[in-house]
Amino acid sequence: MKRAAWGVVALALALTGCDDSGDGRVPAAEYGEVLFNDSRLSESGFNSFSCATCHATTPTAPAGRMDSGYTLYDSAFRESWWGGFETRLLDAVNFCYVNFMRGVTPLPKDSPQSRALYEYLVSISPSPSAPARPFTVVKDIVEVTRGDVTRGQQVYVEACQSCHGEPHTGAGRLTELASILPEVTNDYDTLFPGVPKSLVVIEKVRHGQFFGVGGNMPLYSLESLSDEDLGALLAFLAL
Ligand code: HEC
Ligand code: HEC
């Protein structure tokens, strides 16, 4: 992993070194785009996420993609981030970097990486100011009404499959650390006696690694995944 990290540093030097435009902004933004798409931004050998795993960068998220995180188009000058929880952009980024990408320490303000990421986010943020995006975390886990299986399959493909791979086999999953769904729930009756399996899955989806859950999967707010779609997904997974 050390080698991968050095690769990133070397790239930083190469890209900033050939900045002869006099402006300085474009090469940094380009380097930022590379970092945005590269899981090796994080030095952790257990990380396989890049920023692009969870965030689109187009004005609206592309069809067929239901991410836990918002598109970062026009994100640089939002009034606040993470539903008002973060008031500095770098803190909003570092929240993801540390919690989801297993970054060991937050990216320092003056590091080439954070500066380049900043320039990249600015380059995809044409509006000088943008409203904060709503972010509603479901605190208390309760059952949801089961929905349509066909819709549930679509939700699985768009929201879960990029990381977890195909249902039942995990084929094509991003990392072997992402459990096979729904088979991982086979143990839940032993692990969580008396708790319906579906509630454990709802807890994971709504809280990710927070509220004492653990791991590095992101959490899904009500805005990123409605209860209706979650109910359809559970029906598809036969939970
Ligand atoms: C595993 C998924 C995941 C990864 C990887 C990830 N994020 Fe996030 N990010 C989220 C979630 C979930 C939120 C909260 C919902 C939201 O605000 O977009 C979030 C929020 C944000 C926000 C605040 C957006 C807002 O308006 O509230 C920024 C900025 C951000 N992420 C940038 C990044 C950057 C840059 C990277 C790479 C260094 C990154 N994220 C990696 C999932 C992720
Ligand atoms: C950004 C990648 C990513 C996405 C998207 C994602 N997951 Fe995960 N998920 C993981 C990883 C990695 C783990 C194992 C680490 C952990 O527990 O956080 C995991 C673990 C889980 C577990 C817990 C397995 C256990 O150990 O008991 C469940 C349940 C789960 N995911 C369901 C889902 C569902 C349902 C979706 C879609 C709504 C989804 N995940 C979307 C990456 C992801």
From TrEMBL:
Pfam families reported for this sequence: Cytochrome_CBB3
SUPFAM superfamilies, A to Z: Cytochrome c
Keyword Metal-binding: yes
Keyword terms, alphabetized: Heme, Iron, Lipoprotein, Metal-binding
Signal peptide start-end: none
Domain Cytochrome c residues, every copy: 147-239
Alphabetized InterPro entries for the sequence: Cyt_c-like_dom, Cyt_c-like_dom_sf, Cytochrome_c-type_DH
GO molecular function: electron transfer activity; heme binding; metal ion binding
PANTHER family per the UniProt record, alphabetical: ALCOHOL DEHYDROGENASE CYTOCHROME C SUBUNIT, BLL4482 PROTEIN-RELATED
Name recorded for this polypeptide: Lipoprotein
Organism for this UniProt entry: Myxococcus xanthus (strain DK1622)
